[in-house]
C-alpha cells in the first residue's frame, strides 16, 4: 500500500515554491492556462523525497505512514524532473532533494519579499546598478554580448576548483571588491535571483536586466 499525499498536501507543496520546479537546473513554471478559460494546465508533481512504499526510490522504513504522506516528505517538480530523480537514486539522494526544496522555497520567499521598483522606474533602477557597480555591470554586458542566451551566474575565487557545466557566466571575488554586497543590491533591485546550491553561490539574470545589458542586440 502506498502512502500517498492528500490533495491539500500537493497544493501546499506546489504553492510553497510558486508552482515552479524545485530542481535548480530547471525551475520551469508548472502551471498555466488552458484554451478553455475555466481550466488550467498543470505539469507539476508532488514527488516523494522518500518513497511512498517499499521498493520505491529512497524508501525509508523508519518513517510512519503519516510521515511519508506529510508535506515535509514532498518536493514539487515538473514531470520530467520527477522521473529524473527516481531514475538515479545515488545521484538524487534524500539530502540533495531536501537541499533543492530548501533553495526553491527560499527563492519563492525572496520573490514575495523583494521590492522591485523596475516596473515603475526601470531607467532609474538600471542607473542605480551602473552607478554602484560600473565594472561589474560592464563585465556582464560584455559577457552577454558574446553569450546572449546565458543567464546563470556563479561566484568564485580564482584558483577554486569548480566543475562547470559550460553555460555559466563566472565572476570572481578577486576582480570585484565587495562582490557579495553588489550582488545583494542587484537582488534588491530585482535584476538577479539567487539559486545557490551545492555550496556555490549562483544567480540567474532576469530577462529585463538581460535585455538592458544587450542580450537581445543580436545582429
SSE order in H/E notation?
A: HEEEHEHHHHEEHEEH
Radius of gyration using CA atoms only: 20 Å
SS-based class: alpha+beta
Please tell me the overall pLDDT: 89
Strand content: 15-25%
Distance from first to last alpha carbon:
59 Å
* Helicity, as a percent range: 25-40%
Largest sheet: 4 strands, mixed
> Which strand order do you get reading across the main beta sheet?
6-5-8-7
Please tell me what the overall shape is.
globular
Given as residue ranges, the uncertain stretches (5+ residues, pLDDT < 50) are none
Number of strands: 8
Domains counted in the coordinates: how many?
A: 2
Count of separate DSSP helical elements:
8
Task: Give an account of the 3D structure.
- By secondary structure, the protein is an alpha+beta fold.
- It has two domains: about 110 residues, no CATH class; about 90 residues, Arc Repressor Mutant, subunit A (Orthogonal Bundle), CATH 1.10.10.
- About 40% of the residues lie in helices and about 15% in strands.
- The chain has eight helices and eight strands; from the N terminus they run H-E-E-E-H-E-H-H-H-H-E-E-H-E-E-H.
- The protein has a four-stranded mixed β-sheet.
- A hairpin with a 6-residue loop joins strand 1 and strand 2.
- Helix 5 packs across helix 6.
- The protein is globular, with a radius of gyration of 20 Å.
- The termini are far apart.
Annotation keywords:
single chain; 219 residues; alpha+beta; Arc Repressor Mutant, subunit A; 2 domains; four-stranded mixed sheet; 8 strands; 38% helix; 15% strand; globular
Amino acid at each position: 500500500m502506498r502512502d500517498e499525499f492528500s490533495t491539500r498536501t500537493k497544493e501546499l507543496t506546489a504553492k510553497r515554491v510558486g508552482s515552479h520546479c524545485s530542481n535548480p537546473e530547471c525551475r520551469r513554471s508548472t502551471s498555466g492556462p488552458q484554451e478553455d478559460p475555466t481550466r488550467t494546465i498543470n505539469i507539476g508533481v508532488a514527488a516523494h523525497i522518500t518513497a511512498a512504499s517499499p521498493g520505491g526510490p529512497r524508501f525509508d522504513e523508519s518513517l510512519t505512514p503519516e510521515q511519508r504522506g506529510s508535506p515535509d516528505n514532498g518536493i514539487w517538480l515538473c514531470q520530467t524532473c520527477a522521473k529524473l530523480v527516481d531514475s538515479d537514486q545515488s545521484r538524487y539522494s534524500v539530502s540533495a532533494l531536501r537541499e533543492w526544496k530548501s533553495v526553491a522555497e527560499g527563492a519563492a520567499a525572496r520573490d514575495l519579499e523583494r521590492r522591485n521598483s523596475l516596473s515603475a522606474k526601470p531607467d532609474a533602477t538600471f542607473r542605480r546598478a551602473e552607478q554602484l557597480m560600473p565594472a561589474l555591470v560592464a563585465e556582464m554586458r560584455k559577457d552577454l554580448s558574446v553569450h546572449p542566451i546565458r543567464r546563470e551566474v556563479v561566484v568564485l575565487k580564482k584558483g577554486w576548483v569548480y566543475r562547470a557545466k559550460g553555460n555559466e557566466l563566472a565572476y570572481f571575488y578577486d576582480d570585484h571588491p565587495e562582490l557579495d554586497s553588489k550582488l545583494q543590491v542587484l537582488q534588491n533591485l530585482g535584476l538577479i535571483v539567487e539559486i545557490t546550491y551545492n555550496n556555490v553561490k549562483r544567480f540567474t539574470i532576469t530577462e529585463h536586466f538581460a535585455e538592458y545589458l544587450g542580450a537581445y542586440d543580436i545582429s
